[in-house]
User: What shape does this take?
Amino acid sequence: MTATGVIPRDRFGVWCGWLLVGAAGLTPLFAWLGPLAFAPLLALVGLLCLPAVRIRPQDAPLALILLLGLAWAALSSLWSPSHPTKPGELVALKLALQLPLYGSAWCGARRADPALQRLALRVLAWGLAAYGLLLLVEAFTGAGIYQALRNAMHDPIRPDLARKNIAHGSFVLALLWPVAAAGGRRAGAPWWLAVPMVAGSAALAQVFLSDAPVLAVGLVILTAGLVWTWPRAAPSAMGAAAAAFVLVMPAVVLAVRVLGLGKHLPLSWEERLSYWAYAMDRIAEHPWRGWGLDASRTFGTHIGLHPHDSALQVWLELGALGAVLAALAWAVLFRGLARDRRSLVTAAAAGSAAVYLFFGAVSFGIWQEWWLALGALVAVIAAMGSAQEAAA
Assistant: This one.
């Protein structure tokens, strides 16, 4: 406090705040035109927020687990059959950069000026609501706006590929809308902005035959409702369930095979079960140390880049030790959401975390940069929303 009794404004907090306002404004655009851009966006925000890095005592357990996981993953590169020749293809190097940079972006969200936190959350909420309306139009025009834009840029695209690209955006919105809507509400945005977010994500996924974003709506309602009702007990129980999922997923796949389940399923699910069965056979060959980081890419069409299940990919590449560290990370993450009183932002964060775990279990590779960046973005939004909630 100065001699005049006025508390000076944190200039670096203002800097962090404007960075987050810019990131919030770009989020709907990137979700629509190219989710791969989320990786450089979060990395840039983290780089420019590096002086904000502070590891609090309550952050230390998760930070330690992630560092140990990074070290083990890097070590496993020594026996991995994957031997990339370009620096941009080195997964261990990318993870070593992503962990501190994404963590820095999260610290920057906590450090940001409160007024700019509110602005960023409102920009994000209104932007994603508008994006949800855009997805509704895209759903019923067969990605017509996206195709028209590509044609105007003299970069035409086949209709099926256009629908595939737009479908990725429904996954992005399905992941972000819980924390974006809750954070926006705490920043003064109207609650009904969640409606076009949910409608756009679910409708487009339904029309383009993507099951996961539709199921994610129910998962968010269930998860957030449990955390809202039991703010201390529910996150701990969810952490235990998430850890159990990682640890027992190979046993689940083995049981499905032994019992002969999974027959007469849609083609996409038959392919997943085929990937999972092949991954199980490979896990059995090296259950303790795994095949090494990014080894999934070397198995060709038997897996198709990755097993389409995060738990199996960790078991396959990093073995039992990697699976234990991943299980601990999820347990600690959910346990960190336990509160003594009800919190809208915390309940929404639990919903987004559950969706991230769910999508990872059926769709994306665990090391995909844009997918890791989206997980970091959820944490960034939740940090700003929690700060606004605490101030209120």
